[in-house]
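ugh ok fine here u go
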Amino acid sequence: MTLSLLADIGGTNTRVALADGPAVRLESIRRYPNAEYQARGQDIAHVLRDYLAATGAVVSGVCVAAAGPVQDGVATMTNLAWVMDAAKLSGATGAGKVAILNDLQAQGQALGHIPAANLRTVLPGPVKPGASMLVVGLGTGVNAAPVHPLPRGRAVPPSECGHVNMPVRSEEDFQLIRFIEARLRAEGEAPHAGVEEVLAGRGLANLHGFAACCAGHPASLTSAEVLSALQAGDQIAAHAARLYVHILGQMLADLALIHLPYGGIYLIGGMARAMTPHFPAFGLERSFREARRVDLLQRDFSVTVVEDDYAALTGCAAYLTAQS
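structure:
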């Protein structure tokens, strides 16, 4: 069996592991703090060299999932001054086969290889084997990409749809957009109310700020504090959560009609997992399955939350194996 080296490079840590073909060796997973390497003027090449030196592994392939855009085989990290290409990774590892994926692409490659115990269905629906799927990331940022099966492997095209316009369906939605625009303008940012501004980690804080202003009690909480307040029964936090679920349902419905993911919709990321317990109470199904001119949303598409910290590593292993 071919031994491969995998890396999932996040904003804070890099997870590195070995894989036998498509199977990740869970006991081989190690975490490396990115800030320590960056402070020494080092990057992913040094992380991979340190891992191989510590394990003594000899690998024939390497695949990394990077939290940033990948263009023409070059990955640029969003929150780190790291740039990587095939030559750098091959030089650091001695591997003849090199692949670089965006982290969302790696998550899409993992679908179908994740243990059932790590999948939680939040909206049941028919799932057609071999059909296209949709992976939606809700974490520090927001993004989504279709997953298309091919005769050999699958295609997960790059995307930046976290920056599409926030859906507007009500007067409250319109007021929320104006609130977000004003907040961004005051912070010196581009005043654009994209879905990332309300569905990413910072998004729940933005929604709470809006709900607090509506209640006449302006406040500034972090998303973690909003989640704690929600657990305690705070009504302003509940208003923020209701808005979050409403907007998420609308965005997922729009994406479902664009991509027709008959193989299922899969949510990943910290915000997806944090908000999962609140989906039923705040009406995710009602928002998603709203009646439209076509009845696809009422009778098709399932939504599942991926509860697997190592899915990106699994996707890297699956991708390398499919390219063999």
